[in-house]
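Look over this record before class:
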Amino acid sequence: MSNVKAIENLDPREIRRKLGLNQQQFWSKIGVTQSGGSRYESGRNMPKPVKELLRLVHVEQVDIQRVKREDVEVIEYLRCFEPDLYKNLKKAAKAKLKKAA
């Protein structure tokens, strides 16, 4: 499934329930009010930036408060100009996380 389709098919209520969070806890992590989140869960059209934040924070489990612009710049540099190094670092990081779990 493409990333665009994955974002389009997000069911925020289902994700929130699986995480065991109330609306305030869930939506505040991405800067949305409880009432706004309630409207999205009831079927109101969710803007793409909100969908992407929801995916990053609640599906991918990215702590967006810890991510800095320079981190993203380094990742993009490695992807574009050092793809082998990027792949090796990615594998090493996954292996270390598996070992820690």
In short: The chain has a mean pLDDT of 91.
